Amino acid sequence: MVIANAARVIVNWNIGYLQIDRDNQGIRTAIGVNGALPIPPVYVTEGDTLVLHVYNGLNQSTSIHAHGIFQRNTNYMDGPAMVTQCGIPPGGSFTYEYQINQAGTFWLHGHDHHQNSDGLRTPLIVRDKHSPPFYYDKEYIFSLEDWYNAPFSERLADTLDPNKPFPPEPSYPHALINGYNGNHTGPLLFEVGKTYRIRLINMSTTEWFKFAMSNHQMKVIEADGVYSVPAPVDGVTLGPGQRYSILVSAHSNSNYNYKYMIELFASFIPELRGMSPRYYSGRIEYNPNALVVAVNPETTLKSLPENESMAWMYDVELSALSHRPALPVDRSIELVLGGASFTDGITRDVINNITYAQPLIPTLYSAISMGSLSTNETIYGPQSHAIILRHLEYIELTIYNPNSLPHPMHLHGHTFQIIEYGPIDIEMFPNSERNPSTASIIKASNHPMERDTIVIPIMQYVKLRFRADNPGVWLFHCHMDIHFGMGMALTFVEAPDVLQSTMNIPKNMLKMCLDQGIGISGNAAGNSGFDLNGLPTPPIMTFPGTSVRP
Ligand SMILES: [Cu+2]
């Protein structure tokens, strides 16, 4: 058994703009680190402290989120702007300190102005402190990204422009694999008799990825930083934000080489030959002089049954290696995802008919400063969509998706157990224009799998459980950045009473707000009590009730 000493791993990020051609489609403005893209993956070991020095060379604020890291007792380091901190101003610096007490496959990305979509994203690999539960000789990363020909801000502005048709014309991004044009992906070097761990990370803005390997048995051993009982699969599908680790054994001879195959797709974008989906492949190379066993990525990937959650099996069918049984339920919360028209002509996304907008004070700072009113959802403002969770209560979320798009929903600060998928009752959503789902109900095993990002398929519901054992303010949002930008987010305010007696926000974080004229106490408007004067008036939905985007 190897026991490493906890270390402080120092990483310096000078964030700035650059002009770069990442996909052979031309030069565009992107956001990189230290003058380059891709950003090198960050490696730490469980138990380490990751010290991330950030300098903001952009002309707008920035912040960084360590996706999947629990931030226990350090909620203020979680990153989402105006949820747990003020953005780092242009020309400003800030040092994140992440206490890493998990092992698995995570990622670091911008969480202000959707800068992740313009390049500010990279894998965060946390190695096990002790021997990992499965033996492997070597590991490989596949970071997977969609890359567009225009900066994200332009695409979001088009989407939210009441004078432009909705939805905008579909975009057909290209895939970046490990940060480079997916058509020029190098070989995966395999040695006879060895075992490999392959970490797949979908860091996309919008698109899904499939991954398969010819003539090799893949086994899923991890989803989103949680180990599973090994599950044989022919391939996996990852929605934006999701990760899997695959264990694969090499062949016993090096007579041939094989292929790994990757598909970039979005089920809601009409198929267009050569544009969507796109297919990529590379060699699994045992011997540079051997022949590659022929396989057609397109027909192989297409021939496999598909769902939007995980191809060839649902994540709900995995079992957590922890063998933790299903949690009990103290409180059930129902959430309905949707899109809606508003009287100002803008189409926005909603959860329970509320479209998220940032408050004027970071929600965490309201939770800490509002005394006994911190358990009253009203003080967080009408568009923070605060839901108060009591300390240590067991929560069941039932998330309904009567919408015409799948949504990869990400919960900060927690993993949740996946309890059940099923078709939604069409009677519940008379405004839905979709046909009922033909999916059947699939329930978890006795040891439900956990993860932090889950795809809610079209016309289906998903039941999730977690325990409110991590006091903090945790964003829950769609990881398709356009949808997040359209308002598909809410804020879990977890145990604000406990936060008030345990959490001290670092002084330099408070100063960062004050220097930008942002308040550090009071309700969502920075006022006392229920006076929300100063917050913008929420937009008004055109139709009452859950309306679903046609
Ligand atoms: Cu979405």
Automatic annotation (TrEMBL):
Signal peptide start and end residues: none
Keyword annotations from UniProtKB, A to Z: Copper, Metal-binding, Oxidoreductase
Molecular function as annotated in GO: copper ion binding; oxidoreductase activity
Cross-referenced SUPFAM superfamilies: Cupredoxins
InterPro entries: Cu-oxidase-like_N, Cu-oxidase_2nd, Cu-oxidase_C, Cu-oxidase_fam, Cu_oxidase_CS, Cu_oxidase_Cu_BS, Cupredoxin
Domain of life the protein comes from: Eukaryota
Plastocyanin-like domain segment(s): 17-130, 139-262, 362-497
Family, as annotated: Belongs to the multicopper oxidase family.
Name the UniProt record assigns to this protein: Cupredoxin
Species, as recorded: Coemansia reversa (strain ATCC 12441 / NRRL 1564)
